[in-house]
Design goal:
Length: 259
């Protein structure tokens, strides 16, 4: 049903693959529109609780925004493309589902920005990362100047963006750009194993924790702490809170179902 995406569902996990093999999964407007539509379809579903984002094929996660589409674009078209990507990538950040980037190769420009929009990044040992935009006479436009600085600190973000240096998975791990590095052939299994572990916890509580972390990072500490207190209170109204705590006291496995 999508031209530029592959979507596979495994129980409560949806695996969304960017599928533009001829351009190493570069993101054109049509792909961004489909990604936005796909995520909009998933975010209201209760039966899908984790989304894994990856790139089709053996070599590339996403090699960036599509340069052949941008080469003749006007400033207004550039802005529209940026806002379209921001809408789609923002969904990954805001949706109640946990989002995991399975970075299976090149994560360059918009590819690194897509990975950074996910809650967690797992990289194949063959993956590489860069923000090469300044070498093309533009700057990162799918959130890179904001999310890279938040993830790895402003000094490292400035160095990566100004030099356009490409770094390997180990270096990305060292600076905190990715959560873990696994052998290439084990990437999806590792992401599914992480998803299964998260799914064994209270999905509603996880979604409240996600919201608290993301929203809190965009505000001051005092407001973030108040938000945490409100979400903590919301979790006290759930079936899972009753079940989780009673199961602990009764020394049995909890049956957590809320989302
Ligand atoms: N846009 C359009 N086409 C791309 C592309 C991109 N971002 N990346 C790769 N391709 C195309 C190539 O043009 C090539 O097409 P043809 O077969 O028709 O020639 C095909 O994919 C395969 O690429 P290469 O032959 O270059 O493969 P390689 O293995 O030698 O090199 C690479 C791989 C290092 C990823 C190299 O393709 C490359 O540097 N790509 C561009 C990376 C880049 O600059 N990304 C940032 C884009 S700007 C951006 O993302 C802005 C933003 O903030 C959103």
């Amino acid at each position: 049903m999508f031209e530029h995406l592959l979507v596979e569902e495994k129980g409560q996990i949806a695996i969304v693959s960017i599928n533009n093999p001829k351009s190493l999964n570069a993101l054109n407007s049509a792909t961004l529109t489909e990604l936005n539509d796909c995520l909009a379809g998933i975010e209201g579903r209760k039966d899908i609780r984790v989304v894994i984002v990856t790139g089709a094929g053996p070599k590339s996660f996403v090699a960036g925004a599509d340069i052949s589409e941008m080469v003749d674009a006007t400033p207004a078209e550039g802005r529209a493309m940026s806002l379209l990507a921001m809408e789609a990538f923002g969904r990954l950040e805001k949706m109640p589902q946990v989002t995991i980037a399975a970075v299976n190769g090149f994560a360059l420009g918009g590819g690194c920005e897509l990975a950074m929009s996910c809650d967690i990044r797992v990289a194949a040992d063959t993956a590489s990362f860069a923000q090469p935009e300044c070498g093309l006479g533009i700057l990162p436009g799918f959130g890179g100047t904001q999310r890279l600085a938040r993830l790895v600190g402003e000094g490292r973000a400035m160095e990566l963006i100004f030099t356009c240096d490409r770094i390997d998975a180990q270096e990305a791990y060292r600076i905190g750009l990715v959560n873990k590095v696994v052998p290439k052939d084990e990437l999806i299994d590792a992401c599914v194993a992480m998803a299964d572990k998260i799914l064994s916890k209270g999905s509603y509580a996880v979604s409240l924790a996600k919201k608290s972390i993301h929203t809190g990072l965009d505000t001051d500490l005092a407001s973030g702490l108040l938000l945490e207190a409100s979400n903590f209170a919301l979790s006290f109204a759930s079936h899972d809170k009753q079940e989780g705590m009673r199961a602990f006291l009764e020394k049995r496995k909890a049956d957590l179902t809320d989302f």
